[in-house]
Every structure is written in structure tokens, then in C-alpha cells.
Design brief:
This protein is mainly alpha-helical. It contains 20 helices and no strands.
Length: 510
């Protein structure tokens, strides 16, 4: 019987989930936008942004769970795994209560914060959405303890299967409630029901498969100070992400209106997909990096991993980014309509600077695992505050484009310059070799993007099917050119091995 490699299988399932996550929105989003309308969609997006302020109340504890369980797993100390996980469960149950209280404050304050940009009926809908999403968020706090345990035990196949089911099920259920006339409130209720279902699945799996037992005595209370010391800077990093990605929409909603939030959110949707492209493979290596830290591996091991994984991530996101530059306007025309054309620029401004951290997330994972993420958290927090001030000042004159530009500049400064110096000086990554690798393999993507822009400036795509064929052709040409010019032996095997297995299965049935 052929042995299954959970790491490779988890990565493959991640990309299956990612592909489904791209295909489903292409079909689902235009229908959803047509039923909801721009204003209602804007309110739903705004509610998600407001609720994101509550999600940061986990105080960065998710990373702490993975760190401690990975540490004890490396030592085969399963008694302490149960003890530390029990302590985290108590902490997260308390935080879930804090979330409920925070949601009540948001519910009360909504009419005061959004009376300029929203109508009375929009404010009423927003308040109902906040209540439902608050309850949903508190549920995720409980399930995140068991979810993090599954990640720590490297149960990638199980987690990815759940992701695939959720990716398929959520839009189907959303469309059902939309066609029944429940609009954004119905979608929020679907999210709540799914999170409850997910919580029970994670708890069941943790008890039955991982043999986790929740203890009520001998808890490692002496670890609390250490846990909070580690988590506080992960929390600040989460706060910064929220300030970057949610505050823009909150300011736009309060200063311009729901329609502008809808356009900005469509642009942000592309940025989210863009991040998922890289994170699908990067997240798989999180527990492995924690184990490398636990056994005190040499810096050469980290450098090799950074370059190897960074190259793969670059090939993938460079295809996505250059493809978006060439085909993005046409896609938005067919997908969401011309009223969302500003979303093209929004996505470009927010996607471009993301390339740097997305191909370096092994370095960030290493910094967190080594408990050396304090500097990053502080620097990002300062830049995020500057971004908020800049966004507030530019929105009255430049609207949503001004907001996206401020975010772009902040990301370039933080991710592009400051963190690369930190990785080089403090964590001792060979950043120079890393960027030599990336620059060497960036020639093909840049050349294809320039030629594509020139061609499609004069050749006008008329139908969605024509658009699809052009994208497929662009993708195949990208893969072929990189395979013969840029790929090394390891990267070529990532392409050849699955093809050989499929051919062998077709020929021999095994």
C-alpha cells in the first residue's frame, strides 16, 4: 500500500481548495451582487470590517497554541499537550465572552459612527448584521483552539477537506437564502450556522483522532506570563492587519457611503485571493518551522527553506499578478460590471506591495517561532497608524483611490524596506541570495506582462469565453517558459511527479 505524505497531500489539497475558491466566486459573486445590489453588498462588507475589530481579541493566542503544542510534540510530551491546551481553552472561553460584550458596544455605537455615510434603513441592517456576526465570531474563538491543535498535529488533509467542503457549501447555502429573499441577514445566519457546525467537527476530531483530553486540574498556570509575553506581539501584528484591511472600509463607509465600500471590497477580494495563493503552501510549513526551532537547527536550514519555498510562491503569485494586470479590467467588466471598474486600480495598489511579504512568509513564521516578532509588530503598528491618518486625510479629495494608495505606500515601507533589513541583520537570513534568486526568475513574468499589455491594448476581447481562452493560453505559455528557463530540478519534479503518477494510474490502475 502506497504511503501518503501528509505534507505534500496537504499542500495539494490546499491548492485544490484554492482553485475551487477561485472558481466558485467567479460563478457565485455576480449572482450575489445582482440579488443584493451595490448598497446592500456594501453594508454586508462594512459589517464584516466592523466585526474584524472583535477578531483581534484572540490576542494572538492561535500562534501560541501552535508554538507550544509543536514544542511538546517534538519532545513526545503528550501530558503537557493536554495541560496547555486545556489552559488555552479556558482563556479562549473568557475571550469569547469579551467578544460578546464588544459586539454589544458596536451595536450601540453604530448609529453615531455611520450617520453621515449611511441611511437610517442601512444603519438598521448593519446593526442586525453586527449582532449575528458577533455571535458567530465568539463561536470561532472556541473552535480555533481545536483547529490550532489540528494544525499543530499536522493534520493537513483533514483541515483541507473541511476547507473544500466549506468553500463549496457556503455559496450554495447563501444563494438559497438570497433567492428566498433574506439578503445580507440570511447570509450572516448561514455563516453562524456553519461556524457552529465547524466547532463541533473540530471538537469531535480532536477527541477521537488526536486523543486530546480537557483537564480541570494541574493546569500550567505558571506559563501564563510567558504565553502573554509571546502573544502580545502577535496580537499587535493582527491589530495592524485589521488596521490595514478593515479601517479603510470603515472610514469609507462613514465618510462616503455603502456603494463606495462595495467597490473597495471587490478590489480587496482580489487581494485576499492573491494572499491565499501564497499562504496555501506557506501555512503548511508553519509547524515544521516551529519544530526546526525546537531542535535548534542551523541558519543554513532556514535559508534553504526560505529560498526554496519563496521561489515556488513567487512563480505562483507572479502568474496571478501579471495575469491580473493584463486581464483584470476585462474580467471585472464581465464579472461585476462597469460600475466596479475602480476596483481594478484598488486591487493593483493593494496586491503589488503584497508580493514581498507573501514570498517571504517563511521568514515571518521563523521570527514568530523564535519569539523575535516584537520589532515587526511595533514597526507595523506605527506605519498602520500613519496609514489611517493618511487615509482619513485623502478620502475627501481622492476617494477610495486615495485610501488604497496610502495602504500601498505603507506596505512598501514596512514589508519592502524595514522587514528585509530586519530579516538580514537580526534573523541572519541570506536576504541578498534570496533576492538574487527572485530577480533572476522575474524576467519571464515581467516580459509576458509587458507583451500582454501591448497586445490587448489593440486586441479587444469581446466575450467571456474568448477571455477564458486568452487566460488559459497565457497561463500555459507562462508555465512552459518558466519550466524550460527558470525551474530548477526540484521545481520541475513538482510538475513531473503528479503527471507521471496520473499517467501510471491511467495505464496500470495504480
Amino acid at each position: 500500500m502506497m504511503k501518503v505524505n501528509p505534507l505534500k497531500t496537504g499542500a495539494i489539497l490546499s491548492y485544490i481548495s484554492m482553485i475551487i475558491g477561485f472558481v466558485i466566486p467567479i460563478i457565485y459573486t455576480p449572482i450575489m451582487l445582482g440579488i443584493l445590489g451595490q448598497n446592500e453588498y456594501g453594508i454586508y462588507s462594512l459589517a464584516n470590517s466592523v466585526i474584524s475589530y472583535l477578531t483581534i481579541l484572540n490576542l494572538g493566542m492561535g500562534q501560541a497554541i501552535i508554538r507550544y503544542i509543536s514544542y511538546y510534540r517534538a519532545k513526545d510530551d503528550y501530558e503537557n499537550i493536554n495541560r496547555i491546551l486545556s489552559l488555552f481553552l479556558i482563556i479562549f472561553m473568557i475571550l469569547a465572552l469579551v467578544v460578546l460584550f464588544g459586539g454589544l458596544i458596536l451595536f450601540i455605537g453604530t448609529p453615531f459612527w455611520f450617520n453621515k455615510g449611511l441611511t437610517i434603513s442601512e444603519i438598521s441592517t448593519l446593526r442586525i448584521l453586527i449582532l449575528i456576526m458577533t455571535l458567530s465570531t465568539s463561536i470561532t474563538f472556541i473552535s480555533s483552539v481545536f483547529s490550532a491543535a489540528c494544525t499543530s498535529f499536522e493534520k493537513y488533509i483533514f483541515r483541507r477537506k473541511l476547507e473544500i467542503i466549506g468553500t463549496l457549501l457556503a455559496p450554495i447555502l447563501n444563494l438559497v437564502v438570497l433567492f428566498l429573499g433574506y439578503k445580507s441577514i440570511g447570509m450572516a445566519l448561514v455563516g453562524l450556522m456553519y461556524n457552529i457546525f465547524l466547532m463541533f467537527i473540530y471538537i469531535y476530531y480532536s477527541y477521537k483522532k488526536l486523543k486530546i483530553r480537557i483537564l480541570h486540574k494541574n493546569l500550567p498556570l505558571d506559563r501564563l506570563k510567558e504565553i502573554f509575553s509571546f502573544s502580545i506581539y502577535v496580537f499587535i501584528s493582527s491589530l495592524v492587519d485589521m488596521l490595514y484591511w478593515s479601517t479603510d472600509k470603515v472610514l469609507i463607509g462613514s465618510m462616503i457611503g455603502s456603494a463606495a465600500v462595495a467597490v473597495y471590497n471587490v478590489g480587496g477580494t482580489f487581494s485576499t485571493m492573491f494572499q491565499n495563493l501564497s499562504n496555501s503552501i506557506g501555512n503548511v510549513f508553519g509547524p515544521r518551522v516551529n519544530r526546526l526551532v525546537a531542535i535548534e537547527s542551523s541558519k543554513d536550514v532556514y535559508n534553504e527553506l526560505l529560498i526554496r519555498i519563496g521561489r515556488i510562491q513567487f512563480f505562483i503569485i507572479a502568474l496571478a499578478f501579471t495575469g491580473y494586470v493584463v486581464f483584470g479590467r476585462v474580467f471585472i467588466h464581465f464579472w461585476a460590471g462597469d460600475t466596479y471598474q475602480e476596483a481594478y486600480v484598488i486591487a493593483l495598489l493593494t496586491m503589488g506591495p503584497l508580493i514581498i511579504p507573501l514570498i517571504q512568509n517563511i521568514a515571518l513564521t521563523t521570527a514568530v517561532a523564535k519569539n523575535k516578532h516584537r520589532f515587526r509588530a511595533i514597526i507595523y503598528f506605527i506605519i498602520a497608524i500613519a496609514n489611517i491618518v493618511g487615509t482619513y486625510l485623502t478620502i475627501p479629495t481622492y476617494g477610495i483611490i486615495g485610501a488604497a494608495t496610502c495602504t500601498c505606500i505603507a506596505f512598501i515601507i514596512g514589508h519592502g524596506f524595514v522587514m528585509n533589513i530586519y530579516y538580514y541583520k537580526v534573523l541572519q537570513f541570506d536576504i541578498i541570495s534570496f533576492w538574487k534568486n527572485i530577480i533572476r526568475i522575474s524576467f519571464i513574468p515581467i516580459l509576458m506582462m509587458i507583451i500582454g499589455l501591448i497586445i490587448f491594448r489593440y486586441y479587444i476581447i469581446q466575450t467571456f469565453w474568448e477571455f477564458g481562452l486568452c487566460v488559459i493560453g497565457y497561463t500555459l505559455l507562462y508555465i512552459i517558459l518558466n519550466y524550460f528557463i527558470n525551474f530548477n530540478g526540484y521545481e520541475k519534479n513538482l510538475i513531473k511527479e503528479p503527471i507521471q503518477k496520473i499517467l501510471r494510474w491511467c495505464k496500470y490502475g495504480r
